[in-house]
Amino acid sequence: MPVIRIPNPLRSYVNGQAEVVVQGATVGEAMEDLMRQFPAFRPHLYKQDGSLRAFVNLFLDGRNVRDLEGLETALGPDDTFNLVPSIAGG
Amino acid sequence: MLPELSREEILRYSRHLLVPEVGLDGQRKLKASSVLVIGTGGLGSPVALYLAAAGVGRIGLVDYDVVDSSNLQRQVAHGTSTVGQRKVESARARLLDLNPAIQVDAFDESFTSANAMQIAAPFDVIVDGTDNFPTRYLINDLCVLTGKPNVYGAVFRFDGQASVFDARIGPCYRCLFPEPPPPGLVPSCADAGVLGVLPGTIGTIQATEAIKLLLGIGSSLAGRLLLYNALDMSFEFVTLKKNPNCKVCGPRPEVTALIDYDEFCGVPGIVHEEGSAGAEWDITAGELSRRLGGGDPLLLLDVREPHELEISHLEGARNIPLGELAARLSDLDSAQEIVLFCKMGSRSRRALELLVSAGFRKVKHLKGGINAWAKEVDTNLPVY
Questions:
Q1: CA-CA distance, B153 to A86, in Å (whole number)?
Q2: What CATH number was assigned to the domain covering residues B282-376?
Q3: pLDDT 10s digits, B3-54
């Protein structure tokens, strides 16, 4: 099953896990499954209109899914994608 | 005409002169070049130190802050002897000790839309070593509007990011992150902590990129984002592309001048005094001490992470970390008066907003957090 890698700043929303196993044949379906598993995470990642917030990027094989088919990008059962938020510390 | 090197400089930079990609001409280029380093903290310290050591002829430093002993775990341009000094002066003295042949311009002020253009004008390359979203968007837009490269780095606990944003040849910071996160979602290093050596790793990568840009050698990080994790010791690169809808570097830009970045990032128009939630909600450490001494039945609610309780805690306080609070509101009695606190007052302010929006009315906020209590009431407690 596909895996979503969660960076440190967002792990408090997924019980501290670095990776979450999800179901779905597209990036969007996988994200929906993540939200189903952790409902309190949704308002932080999605706007009320259902679109993904612009401070989060999803990278599959090193490419931003915005440059592919967006949330419709196909996902294989062994795929892992990275959730990359903006961070500001310095 | 590039400046000549003196006999002393030839000796000082001999290890550079031996590298064909730098050589005498490259070293003269560095001497003629200039870099503005914004922030002299965890990232800015190693960046500025290595640029000075490398012989970059003119280095600008921007910071409004004062050296604090809690900075020294990572901000290596400063020292125990400079605690309490202006950061730019502390760093300037350190850089000139390392290399007296360079010029260091100190800007002891916040970097704002009002002064950014003027401060940045003489510099070839801009390095983003700041610790907040409004200044990061300001630096990006400034660099796009003036055609300068933005050498980017950011850190959080064990995670680091680095890139070069140069809108003339590739994407800018807004192409990657069109908007900042909602305020409070991504905690600051002051609240969440950071591995001290992490900004050293990312800062030296930024210094490397700045020097390569000045010399015109190698492949820069333009169009790539480095994702570093210190715990896994992993370096990953992802590809960045120009966003055709980018509001500042796209073909139909909406941002054509510097804007109000606090407003853009959702920082309230009325800036809260640090550690305060406003007079209506605040209770000072002294006042809380008096009320507890008088036997008031207050619930002290500590919203810090459990491991912070080992550093300091208040007797009788209940701990619900901020991240769990929304899911555990039913554990709280809205009829009882609650006093929220954290380390310094920023997480407890978000906890206050959460409780108030859930209908709690009898809520107070310990101004300045447990650190204020440790300074004003119980001086046996450590400040961290």
A1: 11
A2: 3.40.250.10
A3: 999 999 999 999 999 999 999 999 999 999 999 999 999 999 999 999 999 9
What are the sequence ranges of the domains in chain B? 33-264, 282-376
Interface A-B: count of C-beta contacts within 8 A: 104
Q: What angle do CA B339, B344, B350 make, to 5 degrees?
A: 60
Q: Which residues of A fall below an 8 Å CB-CB distance to B?
A: 7-9, 12-13, 40, 44, 53-57, 59, 62-64, 66-67, 82, 84-90
Cβ-nearest to B154 among A44, A53, A89: A89
Q: Spell out where B63-190 has E strands.
A: 103-107, 125-128, 150-156, 159-165
Q: What is the C-alpha separation between B251 and B67, in angstroms, rounded?
A: 43
Please give, rounded to a whole number of angstroms, the shortest distance from the CA of A77 to a CA of chain B: 21
Q: What is the ipTM of this complex?
A: 0.93
The answer to whether B142 and B120 have CB atoms below 8 angstroms apart is yes
CA B166, CA B320: separation in Å to the nearest integer? 44
- CATH top class, domain B33-264: alpha beta
Topology given in CATH for the domain delimited by A3-85: Ubiquitin-like (UB roll) (3.10.20)
- Report the interhelical angle of B198-215 vs B44-54 (nearest 10°): 40
Model pLDDT for residues B318-366, shown as the tens digit of each residue: 999 998 898 899 899 988 999 999 999 989 998 998 899 888 989 999 9
CA of B241: which chain A residue's CA is closest?
Answer: A67
pTM here is: 0.88
**Annotated domain spans of chain A:** 3-85
Q: Which of A8-12, A61-65, B71-75, B334-338 is the least confident region?
A: A8-12
Contact B236 A84 (CB under 8 A): no
Task: Write out chain B residues lying below 8 Å of A42, CB-based.
Answer: none
